[in-house]
Amino acid sequence: MDRPGSARIALVGVLFIAPALAQIQKQPDDGQWVMAAKNYASTRYSTLDQINTTNVKNLKLAWTFSTGVLRGHEAAPLIVNNTMYIVTPYPNYLYALDLTKPGAPVKWMYQPHPAPASQGVACCDVVNRGAVFYNGKIIYNTLDVQTVAVDAKTGQEVWRTKLGDINQGESITMAPIVAKNTVLVGNSGGEFGVRGWLAGLDANTGKLEWRAYATGPDKDVLIGSNFKPFYAKDRGTDLGMKTWPGESWKIGGAAAWSWISYDPDLDLFYYGTSNPGPWNPDQRPGDNKWSSTLFARRPETGEALWAYQMNPHDLHDYDGVNENILLDLNINGQPRKVLAHPDRNGRMYIIDRTNGEVLSAEPFAYINTSESVDLQTGELKLNPTKQTGYKTIRDACPAPPGGKDWQPSSFSPKTGLIYIPHNNLCYETQGVTANYISGTPFVGMNVRMYPGPGGNRGEFSAWDPVKAKPVWSIKEMFPAWSGTVVTAGDVVFYGTMDGWFKAVDDRNGTILWQFKVGSGIIGQPVTYKGPDGKQYVAVLSGVGGWSGGVVAGGLNPVDGTGALGFLNAMADLPKYTTKGGMLYVFSLP
Amino acid sequence: MSFRCLSFLLLSMWPCMAGNQRVLRVCADPNNLPFSNEQGQGFENKIAELISSALNEKLEYTWWSERKSFIKNSLDQGRCDAVLGIPSSLDSVAATQPYYRSTYVFVSRQDRNLHITSLGDPELSNLRIGIHLVGDDYAPPAIALARRGITQNITGFSLFGSYGEPNPPRKLIDAVDQGTVDIAIAWGPFAGYFAKSEKAPLDIAPVSPPMYLGVPFTYSISAGVRKGDNALKTELDEALVRESAAIQQILSQFGVPQVH
Questions:
Q1: Are B158 and A247 inside 8 Å of each other by CB?
Q2: Residue A561: its pLDDT value, please?
Q3: Residue A68, phi then psi, degrees to nearest 5
Q4: Residue A3 pLDDT greater than 50, yes or no
Q5: Furthest-apart CA pair in chain B: how many Å?
Q6: Which of A522, A515, A519 is nearest to A480 (CA)?
Q7: Does domain B2-100+221-253 sit in CATH 2.60.40.1180?
Q8: Is A190 within 8 Å of B136 when comparing Cβ atoms?
Q9: Three-state secondary-structure class, residue A25
Q10: Residue A439: its chain B contacts at CB < 8 A?
Q11: Contact of B135 with B68, CB cutoff 8 Å
């Protein structure tokens, strides 16, 4: 793991990145954690440094809390005003824990009572990725397509807005952010033929201010005269309609079910859209805009300023929804305002966030479905032997969960490195097998996933976004499906699906400490300063999600095509972990 | 009682007892005519009643919407012991002998005089075609049509529809009646049942050929039990054979197009 060059890279990173980063965040780090991604730039970097590479080996369990929920726990705890807030998977309980008292007892608990039927609509477990604190309120989404705001002090509901219909296959699993008093929320449900959207709500009242669809005519997509995509391939009128056969854009997916970042200086927020529907690409000739696309929009109006489609006419379920980390980097000697987007297709896109120009797009995981990205045209060059449809394809990498899925990376301005939890999965599709629903037989493809080269299904690695190269990597038996947090103490934390919570030296990948928790970790670790002035690290354990459905959903591991083909790659997970939602909080003695 | 019954059942794979009478526990969709609904008006309700009384068992339903992961959430979780109306080749269950075989059909208004029976018909390129959409996948006819390059003129109708309304899949047949699409390609039992109550007289013609460009359009339909539940499978098989005449009568009452 030791790389001689890493210290030098770290030094260079400090020199030119740190001041710029501080500027874009405009959020002094007070040791709290007020949104899932820590800050608008989504760096998940904390300036806390009490816990460092020397003393992290002494890290001890401080206290724990059981959420009483068994499904996959993907949320980041929030820490505001000496209170910790935890959102659970369905039924989406919100707990407030009093950090000023020994053992952090429950101050209050809020139950939104989402419709039970919403459980049948969630594609990949009934997860929730967390809440945001804004102006005295905790704001989050429920699985049954509602956004709720709860008084952070009392736990009383302040407002509640229904944004969609579970009967139409919609749900919400993402963590909202608030920019310019606007709550930004997107739907899930790409697997159910929904039409994707992202909405802006008044943070004070919950009133729906605008909704930007990802398919359809420009007026629905909120594309107007200020829309200036960098590449010709993304320019034109009503492409959200014209790049689809007939009226299929109405059921085209492209849901915004994951992360949103915001740059207050440019007044632009950034997010990606999911894969297009239907699954069979033969049935949707065309680019299928705006699926698998990054958008830059204004928070107050939703107006689109630019878009870049990573995966036109997606063949492999490569959603474009992964995190966008906003960084100011020196690329080829020029200072550039960029976003770093590790896509499902396995490439790390470094994109000029002022205009959508791709500066690099190198693979961070093993891939063979695409060959390169042409930086002049923005086009992804596909490998012609890995094109799907209703036919047999073997050894296509990455598998549908991608080089990485939703699991968010972190960035340290000290090292200049991005820390990426990711997958190493390939897949094959074969046969036309009978299935049915509502009494109707239909045919589908068997999708079977399996470990990529090396046999490890996951990896946690450090990536240099300037050189577009990996720096170090830790192989994991299972997909690294948790979030990460990195600190000024040069320690980066992540968790594994078999239940190890790990602290790693962010410069060289040395594992400095690890602790076995009760259930596999797919949550987002956070760090905060407690009322006693000590630094704490917190993470939810509770395996599940798409990858962990074999444990949390009780799926039958004999049927490898379950959980959309993921089971085949995860059949041994029940031997390593059991379900159960539990918060673990660590500190130095 | 139900929990104890469940654990007992999972261990022994024998039917539950309610008092002295044995119970046939069936999972079915509460809102999916012509197959089933909560009022027991579907043909699978009638067949379930027939079978349970032939076996001298009390029929008990667990209502569960037949959406994604229906088998995993219902049968596999022990919420019931049998489901009806599954394709005989479905490999996530142990399927009984088929009790009917139906086909995808073309549905069009008689006054349009379309008379289309083949998926290879060149006229299909020029018509607005409605097809059910299952999740984000089209029903089989769309796959074959896409292989012919026909995608522009397909309109998807969600099989799930809005579950708050009665009979969500009906919208496809309604669209033919109202002229929103020129022709629908639908699973036979839907078409046979809903066509009867539309305003305009509708033509129904089986899709031919039965296998086109690698995609099958006729399916044998069975009841399903958990894999390994051989005792119940044998019982159901025997009852289905014994009651086959009565089953045929029910199917024809509901207008289910049958093929052999």
A1: no
A2: 65
A3: 75, 15
A4: no
A5: 62
A6: A522
A7: no
A8: yes
A9: helix
A10: 29, 32, 35-36, 44, 66, 85, 187, 189
A11: yes
Q: Per-residue pLDDT tens for A417-461?
A: 999 999 999 998 876 677 777 778 877 777 889 999 999 999 999
Q: Return the structure tokens found at A287.
A: 């680019």
B90's tokens: 């479905």
Taking a C-beta distance cutoff of 8 angstroms, is the pair B193, B204 a contact? no
Partners of residue A168 in chain B, C-beta under 8 Å: 158, 160, 162
Q: Look at residue A19 in the predicted model and tell me its pLDDT.
A: 39
CATH number listed for the domain at residues B102-216: 3.40.190.10
Please write the tens of the pLDDT for every residue from A160-180. Answer: 999 998 877 789 999 999 999
Of residues A390, A434, A556, nearest to B87 (C-beta): A434
Residues B79 and B71 sit within 8 Å (Cβ to Cβ) = no
User: Torsions phi, psi of B199, nearest 5?
Assistant: -70, -50
CB atoms within 10 A of CB A343: 28
Mutate: best of B73, B76, B136, partner A, most A CBs <10 A: B136
Q: CATH 3.40.190.10 occupies which residues in chain B?
A: 2-100+221-253, 102-216
What average pLDDT does range B33-43 have in this prediction? 94
Query: Does B77 reach chain A within 8 Å, measured CB to CB?
Result: yes
| pLDDT score at A11 | 38
d(CA A299, CA B16): 59
Contact A179, A139 (CB under 8 A): no
From A125, A144, A191, A314, active-site residue: A191
Count of CA atoms in the C-beta half-sphere (13 A) of A164: 30
SS3 A304: strand
Q: Locate tokens 């305009």: which residue?
A: B200
pLDDT exceeds cutoff 80 at A18: no
C-alpha torsion angle, residues A40, A44, A46, A52 (rounded to 10): -170
Domain A31-587 of CATH type 2.140.10.10: yes
pLDDT of residue A532: 97
Provide mean pLDDT across the span A17-26: 43
The verdict on whether A314 is a catalytic residue reads no
Q: CA A366 to CA A353: how far, in whole Å?
A: 26
Helix (H) or strand (E) holding A512: strand A511-516
| CA nearest neighbour of A519 among A540, A503, A538 | A540
Torsion angle, alpha carbons of A277, A280, A284, A288, to 10: 50
pLDDT at B108 over 80: yes
**Nearest to residue A378, comparing CAs of A402, A360, A353?**
A360
Chosen for mutation from B43, B134, B171, B222 (greatest number of chain A CBs closer than 10 Å) is: B134
**For residues A577 and A568, what is the distance between their CA atoms, to the nearest angstrom?**
17
Report ipTM for this prediction. Answer: 0.78
If you average pLDDT over residues B158-186, what whole number do you get? 87
Residue type, B217: F
The DSSP-derived string for A72-120 is: ---PBPEEETTEEEEE-STTT-EEEEETTSTT--EEEEE-----GGGGG
Digit-coded pLDDT (tens) for A251-306: 899 999 999 999 999 999 999 999 998 878 888 999 999 999 999 999 999 999 99
State yes or no: pLDDT of B18 exceeds 80: no
Interface of B with A in 89-118 (CB under 8 A): 89-92
Q: What is the distance between the alpha carbons of residues B169 and B157, in angstroms, rounded to a whole number?
A: 8
Once rounded to an integer, what is the mean pLDDT over residues A358-382? Answer: 97
Chain B contact set for A550 (CB, 8 A): none
Instruction: Report the predicted TM-score, pTM, of the whole model to 2 decimal places.
Output: 0.89
